User: What shape does this take?
Amino acid sequence: MLELVFTRRFAMAHRLIHGSSEICATPHGHNEEVKVYLKSQNFKALDGKMNVVVPFQQAKTTWHRFIDQSVDHAFQLAENDPLVEWFKQHEPKRLPRLLITPGDPTTELLACLFMSKLNCFLSAEQSGLYCHQIEIMETPTNTVRFMGNPSEFIPNCRPSDQCWWNRADMSISEFS
Ligand SMILES: Nc1nc2c(c(=O)[nH]1)N=C([C@H](O)[C@H](O)COP(=O)(O)OP(=O)(O)OP(=O)(O)O)CN2
Assistant: This one.
């Protein structure tokens, strides 16, 4: 079996307001790394000419654009975090920089949301690839790995078409 593995770094800020930790409820940031593992739906063998599953550029360009343009330096907030309302009232022009999640933006949830988003890109581009595993290194000592069907793990909130992780676009909220 051959798979393609791509890694991207990004900076982020977040806070977790539904747990009991005061330090997690204070807005803070991390330099994170996301690693995605892609398999081909129908790859049989190298062809003796190009000898690739899919060219790297074809497989990763949209995903890396999403991480670089939308996720890097975004502020991750739960949709019911009062800071969302604060931005609406005081800095509406920055709303597109908020990455909004159903419940706290933990690394577990982001792993599921990012896999869903990436699979939307790969499907829309008819790449023949799908992401079957994702790892997010939140800090040098904490990593979350997800394998499986993200829709079985993501909390039910709004209709599917109102969820940014179900769309093959650069959105990270319903504001962007
Ligand atoms: N299950 C989860 N628990 C925690 C998450 C999470 O996403 N999933 N996130 C946090 C906070 O974001 C926190 O800033 C990071 O965790 P922490 O363990 O404090 O990170 P450190 O690198 O400082 O860990 P060390 O123990 O110093 O190695 C908290 N929990």
Summary: The beta strands are 4-14, 28-40, 74-78, 98-101, 129-139, 142-147.
